[in-house]
Write a structure and sequence with these properties.
Layout (H helix, E strand, L loop, with lengths): L2 H13 L2 H8 L3 H15 L4 E4 L2 E4 L1 H28 L5 E6 L1 H5 L1 H12 L4 E6 L2 H9 L5 E6 L20 E16 L13 E4 L2 H13 L5 E5 L3 H9 L5 E4 H6 L5 E4 L6 E9 L6 H19 L1
Parallel strand pairs: 3-4, 3-5, 7-8
Antiparallel strand pairs: 1-2, 5-11, 6-9, 6-10, 6-11
Length: about 300
């Protein structure tokens, strides 16, 4: 049974005549009559009795009208629910972010979204870029805040998480940041002595970048400690157990009083961006989050 004809029948039944229904539906009386007869053929019995003063419902018509009212009510509720999503009175968005972004630019973005659209529910978990990208691809997350080094290797799924090669994911640029040499506060280590130092490495991507930069400088770094927790790394450095390279967001999220940040061009810069599935930017809650991430990033990277 064609639901459009059921709703047309409802208009006929509620208005009391074919001509009134035609005016309500902005069509012609013959068109209404034709669709009503087609519905009666589908039902296998008459639904209305036609007379000079309008129509009268048969028993079958009365029963169908009850169901037609239910259909109209559900469609109205669906329309209101979609309108709520479109106007951000409701909705849900799921975010994945690497730790230093989760501690710096993400909180401002989420607070702004909550202030502007309190009906939108937000979920966030931490993950490094490859895992974050997998979460987006598998539908477990809507947006992932990720980073990329110029010398990054593939992320394990056959695509890079970089502006020009994000694979099947759309890339939204957020900013770029310097990666600085970090040593103990009282250290007198000079550039010519880096090859003799003990190094502390971060996540696999950060370790790969560190090693590649040291190779470019002509030496193999002796890595004795590894941690993707920038608080742990800085505590190790502060106690004189090694040196490391950390990006701007990690140093902004936490700055141990026992470390010193040395300006160095050795480690270059890394790019930060958000990735999402193509087309997701048209989903109102996702679009709102992306806009606030961009706004927060402009402040974070301008400092």
């Amino acid at each position: 049974m064609d639901p459009r004809r059921v709703l047309l029948f409802r208009s006929v039944a509620r208005s009391g005549s074919l001509s009134a229904a035609a005016r309500e539906l902005a069509t012609t009386q013959p068109a209404v009559s034709q669709q009503l007869r087609a519905l009666e053929r589908e039902a296998g019995m008459p639904l209305v009795l036609r007379g000079a003063r309008g129509i009268t419902l048969t028993e079958a018509g009365q029963r169908l009208l009850t169901q037609a009212d239910n259909i109209a009510a559900h469609l109205h509720m669906a329309g209101e629910e979609l309108a709520g999503l479109a106007q951000l009175r409701a909705g849900r968005v799921r975010l994945v972010a690497f730790p230093s972004a989760a501690a710096t630019l993400v909180p401002d973005a989420l607070a702004a979204l909550a202030d502007d659209h309190p009906g939108v529910a937000v979920e966030m978990v931490e993950a490094e870029p490859p895992e974050a990208a997998v979460a987006v691809r598998q539908g477990a997350a809507d947006v992932a805040v990720v980073f990329s080094y110029p010398d990054d290797a593939a992320d394990g799924s056959g695509s890079m998480l970089a502006p020009d090669d994000a694979g099947d994911l759309a890339w939204v640029p957020l900013g770029d940041e310097a990666v600085q040499l970090v040593v103990a506060r009282e250290s007198t280590i000079g550039p010519s002595e880096l090859h003799r130092q003990t190094w502390i490495a971060g996540c696999p991507r950060c370790r790969g970048h560190l090693v590649a930069c040291c190779h470019t400088a002509g030496f193999e770094p002796r890595i004795s400690f590894e941690s993707d927790d920038y608080v742990v790394v800085q505590n190790l450095v502060a106690r004189g157990l090694g040196i490391t390279a950390l990006p701007q967001l990690a140093l902004r999220a936490f700055g141990h009083p026992g470390i010193a940040v040395r300006e160095s061009g050795l480690f270059g810069r890394r790019t930060v961006g958000a990735v999402h599935r193509a087309g997701a930017e048209h989903v109102p809650a996702t679009r709102a989050l992306l806009e606030r991430l961009q706004r927060s990033a402009r402040t974070a990277f301008a400092r």
